[in-house]
Protein: 4-hydroxy-tetrahydrodipicolinate reductase
Organism: Immundisolibacter cernigliae
Amino acid sequence: MTDANTPLRIAIAGAAGRMGRTLIAACAEQPGLMLTAAFEHAGSGALGLDAGVLAGLPANGVAIAGDDTLAATLFDVLIDFTGPAATLAHAAACAASGRALVIGTTGLDATQKAELTAAAARTPIVFAPNMSVGVNLCFALLATAARVLGDDFDVEIIEAHHRHKVDAPSGTALRMGEVVAQALGRDLRQCAVYGREGQTGARPRDAIGFATVRGGDIVGDHTVLFAGDGERIEITHKASSRLTFARGALRAAAWLKNRPSGLYDMQDVLGLR
Ligand SMILES: NC(=O)C1=CN([C@@H]2O[C@H](COP(=O)(O)OP(=O)(O)OC[C@H]3O[C@@H](n4cnc5c(N)ncnc54)[C@H](O)[C@@H]3O)[C@@H](O)[C@H]2O)C=CC1
Ligand SMILES: O=C(O)C1=N[C@H](C(=O)O)C[C@H](O)C1
């Protein structure tokens, strides 16, 4: 890692994607951080393009490179918003060289998460399904709401995203479910209900339901509904710009400087734990 006056060298994986391009732009406005590398998959049509130009900015001299060059490239922190398989390969490469990671990728299964935990034994990693301050505040509010409302209120989680999103429910919705389940002393794996159709029977009282909407350019909406007899409480977050996620990821990258190995999330970064 660098000393206090040297800019932190940032690399971005998934640079040509929606989040990658937003991260390139966010990095350019952030003092103390310097984009030094940008990666795409080895067959990407974006290879060789200037990262600044790709993000709609003036050229910044960083050419998009194949991720097969990642292990041999100089940087301090890799910010990865790709897909589960790519993220795990990148985490392994960073762990081997002790370089820090910020991971925003969602859709990892339990085995893949265990692999990430193993990588975090060798290098510091912030892994969070949502990097926005607002959503992370909502996690804390949800734990309080669930504790106060208890088992008398039915919990339903509704999320909406753009038509290109490939995983469902969103990583954020799943984390919201985990937070509520933990506060209520339930195991989400036992009580989650993912969508309903046909003769479903009455709602089990301990169910935590998920509903997924996909369409257009919705950046990311999440509502947790606590429905009781005679009243309802809704905790809602709506993202209107990907910059909120990108700025959170860059904050996490700066926070990682000189941290010991371990698996962290945005609750750690924001001091909410
Ligand atoms: N944690 C958070 O705050 C947020 C998380 N996300 C998550 O980030 C991920 C990416 O989202 P988007 O940017 O919308 O998707 P996207 O599909 O626009 O971008 C992903 C990019 O990764 C690239 N890629 C695939 N394999 C690669 C490899 N081996 N090396 C380098 N690049 C590779 C793809 O070519 C693509 O350009 C998703 O899992 C999404 O759910 C998205 C927004 C916020
Ligand atoms: O794919 C997205 O776009 C988003 N994914 C994250 C998730 O799955 O929770 C976060 C955000 O809502 C945008």
Summary: The mean pLDDT is 97.
